[in-house]
């Protein structure tokens, strides 16, 4: 769900890149956040809450609230609303508390 | 350890102006922001600015932020650290920062905190479902990344932000099913509200959200009418077939660093939360720590810029820097702030500031160079 026509803004999208979400290959653009790329692919759930296992998505989109924590390249607790997408990135839904290895 | 004269935390309009003004007197400044761009909230504001007769009214926020960021990048006295988050403040005056998975320590002589505000949420059943967003979050998604949050939106709150973001959603091709506002009147400036209504978006005053529904994501929302005691009126529930609920119920100041530093804080509803006491030159109760912008009380970008300018001048002056026109520059800024806050529009802010501004009119006080904070 991307915006292509806009009366004021011109979205110059940089290079198209591939990443995986829970094992599925998806496409996004260089320069955008992981959260933006997921939304563009229609994915709005980022993690499962710790106690009640409820789905959680984006809330603040500025790195402030921790609603959007995911596992990125094996590392838990990454705020994907401020994490930039990289080629080949492996993004997974985080369930419960992230385990630091 | 990075030693510097002034560290500005937050690169929104307040922080950028603070850095520019401090550097213009000759001070060396490090400005840090957790985003990987400068400009703060302004970067996503595509509308023409409201704001009093201020010189910048009717410009677009995004252009102001580009201009300020450019000036900051050009200024050799300023070092910019983006994608850098200030994590803590320690008793010995050290600010710790995370950047590129590394832990940095900065030891500045003065600190200007310009961290801005965070959006508030609202209690209602299922308010944690994916699809419930802060209005600013949606604004960032749509205006910065060109990505839609969903197909159809219910906006909660008809203040400036709720109404402006609704309009921007329409511009991006997202449907807005309606705006609910608990108060009996629309809070936004009428020009903006009229545009949205003309575009066919109904605004329901004396209405609130009763709940969201959906299994894994938002699939709809129920609203309810309120009586004049703000109690829900049974039987007035309306269902909205929406996949996005946008909350625009205000911001609160981001003050963690000020709390850590032990600044005297006070809850001031007119300024939207806990804010630090300060003097007229924006210095908090902890000598050497200054504030500017929304972090010191939620207001507007024009005031944030002027407060930043004032804090920047004050901090540099306290380090011993000056200029022949220092006094007139300071007086101009104070006058502009007063203008911005004049009249009925500024009444709430004036009332709030009165509660936290320690010394109303004070001659500029030169702090000892080695003030120990
Ligand atoms: C939808 C919307 C519409 C608006 N429209 C108008 C308008 O028309 N006219 C107007 O005058 N005002 C408007 N405003 C208000 C205006 O945007 C704000 O008042 C202004 O941006 C505040 O500036 P600031 O510098 O204090 O904070 P911000 O712009 O919020 O900047 C704070 C910066 O600090 C950074 N930061 C926070 N914490 C840390 C940390 N720990 N470490 C590092 N960096 C950190 C943030 O990343 C951010 O970049 C609007 C606001 C919104 C949300
Ligand atoms: S959505 Fe709030 S931290 Fe990412």
Automatic annotation (TrEMBL), chain A:
InterPro entries: 2Fe-2S-bd_N, 2Fe-2S_ferredoxin-like_sf, 2Fe-2S_ferredoxin-type, 2Fe2S_fd_BS. GO terms for molecular function: 2 iron, 2 sulfur cluster binding; oxidoreductase activity. This is (2Fe-2S)-binding protein. It comes from the Bacteria. The keyword Methyltransferase does not apply. The keyword Ion transport does not apply. Residues 15-97 form the 2Fe-2S ferredoxin-type domain. Keywords: Oxidoreductase. CDD domains: fer2.
From TrEMBL, chain B:
InterPro entries: Ala_DH/PNT_CS2, FAD/NAD-bd_sf, FAD/NAD-binding_dom, Metab_Enz_Cyan_OpOx_G3PDH. Residues 6-308 form the FAD/NAD(P)-binding domain. Keywords: Oxidoreductase. It comes from the Bacteria. GO terms for molecular function: oxidoreductase activity. Pfam families: Pyr_redox_2. Transmembrane segments: none annotated. The keyword Oxidoreductase applies. The keyword Ligase does not apply. PANTHER family: ANAEROBIC GLYCEROL-3-PHOSPHATE DEHYDROGENASE SUBUNIT B. This is FAD-dependent oxidoreductase. It comes from Thermanaerosceptrum fracticalcis.
């Amino acid at each position: 769900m991307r915006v292509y026509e806009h009366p004021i803004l011109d979205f110059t999208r940089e290079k198209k890149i591939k990443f995986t979400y829970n094992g599925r290959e998806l496409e996004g653009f260089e320069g955008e956040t992981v959260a933006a790329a997921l939304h563009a692919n229609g994915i709005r759930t980022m993690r499962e809450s710790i106690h009640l296992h409820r789905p959680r998505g984006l809330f603040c989109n500025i790195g402030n609230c921790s609603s959007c924590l995911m596992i990125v390249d094996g590392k838990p607790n990454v705020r994907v609303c401020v994490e930039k997408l990289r080629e080949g990135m492996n993004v997974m839904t985080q369930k419960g508390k992230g385990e630091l290895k | 350890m990075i030693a510097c004269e002034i560290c500005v935390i937050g690169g929104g309009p307040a922080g950028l102006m603070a850095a520019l003004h401090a550097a213009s007197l000759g001070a060396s400044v490090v400005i840090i922001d957790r985003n990987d761009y400068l400009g703060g909230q302004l970067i996503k504001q595509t509308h023409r600015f409201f704001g009093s007769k201020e010189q910048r009214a009717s410009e677009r926020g995004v252009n102001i932020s580009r201009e300020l960021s450019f000036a900051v990048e050009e200024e050799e006295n300023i070092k910019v650290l983006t994608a850098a988050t200030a994590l803590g403040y320690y008793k010995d005056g050290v600010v710790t920062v995370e950047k590129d998975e590394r832990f940095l320590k900065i030891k500045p002589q003065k600190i200007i905190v310009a961290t801005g505000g965070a959006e508030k949420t609202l209690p209602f059943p299922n308010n944690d479902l994916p699809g419930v967003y802060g209005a600013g979050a949606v604004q960032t998604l749509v205006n910065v990344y060109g990505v839609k949050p969903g197909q159809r939106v219910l906006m909660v709150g008809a203040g400036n932000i709720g109404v402006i973001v609704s309009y921007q959603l329409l511009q991006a091709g997202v449907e807005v099913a309606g705006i609910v506002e608990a108060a009996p009147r629309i809070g936004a400036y009428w020009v903006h509200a009229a545009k949205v209504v003309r575009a066919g978006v109904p605004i329901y005053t004396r209405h609130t959200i009763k709940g969201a529904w959906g299994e894994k994501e938002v699939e709809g929302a129920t609203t309810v009418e309120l009586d004049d005691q703000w109690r829900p009126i049974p039987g007035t529930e309306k269902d909205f077939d929406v996949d996005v609920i946008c909350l625009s119920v205000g911001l609160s100041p981001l003050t963690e660093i000020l709390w850590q530093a032990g600044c005297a804080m006070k809850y001031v509803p007119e300024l939207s939360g806990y804010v630090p006491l300060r003097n007229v030159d924006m210095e908090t109760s902890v000598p050497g720590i200054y504030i500017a912008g929304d972090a010191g009380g939620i207001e507007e970008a024009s005031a944030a810029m002027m407060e930043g300018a004032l804090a920047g001048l004050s901090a540099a002056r306290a380090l011993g820097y000056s200029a022949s026109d220092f006094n007139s520059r300071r007086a101009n800024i104070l006058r502009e702030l007063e203008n911005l806050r004049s009249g009925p529009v500024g009444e709430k802010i004036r009332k709030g500031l009165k509660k936290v501004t320690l010394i109303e009119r004070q001659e500029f006080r030169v702090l000892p160079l080695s003030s120990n904070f």
